[in-house]
Amino acid sequence: WATGDTDIIIGVVTDTFNFTWVPDKEVVSKARFPAFFFSFKSNAEADGRAKYFMRFDNIIHRQIGDTLYEAADWIVDGFDRGSYFNAAMDGRVIWDMATT
């Protein structure tokens, strides 16, 4: 996520992974995610803004049973910021959602 390399992101998600972009109520499948994120990165770099880089703040982890949950703030300086919430099992992200 930090560098925007979708090959790395896709490499750590399950086959049934879905990403929900809450502002548009858009559910993005694993197959559609690279195109979705390319568009997000392009918007972040539009109008002469710096090369895309996402940083994270206020990270919270919570293990419940076999599932690890993570909630935090995401920040792309000069573009936007928001919060996200995801869950992982067996080292693989099973779902993720983010908002601004």
Q: What is the alpha-carbon Rg in Å? A: 13 Å
End-to-end separation in angstroms reads: 16 Å
State the helicity in percent bands: 10-25%
Shape summary: globular
* Helix-strand string: HEEHEEEE
Strand numbers in spatial order across the main sheet: 2-1-6-5-4-3
Major β-sheet profile: 6 strands, mixed
Coarse structural class: alpha+beta
Tell how many strands the DSSP assignment holds.
6
Proportion of beta-strand residues: over 45%
Number of helices: 2
Mean pLDDT: 97
Please tell me about this protein's structure.
The structure is a single chain. Strands 2-1-6-5-4-3 form a six-stranded mixed sheet, covered by helices on one side. The chain has two helices and six strands; from the N terminus they run αββαββββ. Helix content is about 20%, strand content about 50%. It has helices spanning about 5-10, 35-45, and strands at about 15-20, 25-30, 55-65, 65-75, 80-90, 90-100.
Q: Which terms summarize this structure?
A:
alpha+beta; 2 helices
List the helices and strands and how they pair.
Layout: H1 6-10, E1 13-21, E2 26-29, H2 33-45, E3 55-64, E4 67-76, E5 80-89, E6 92-99
Parallel strand pairs: 1-6
Antiparallel strand pairs: 1-2, 3-4, 4-5, 5-6
Short description:
With 100 residues, this protein is α+β, with helices and mostly antiparallel strands.
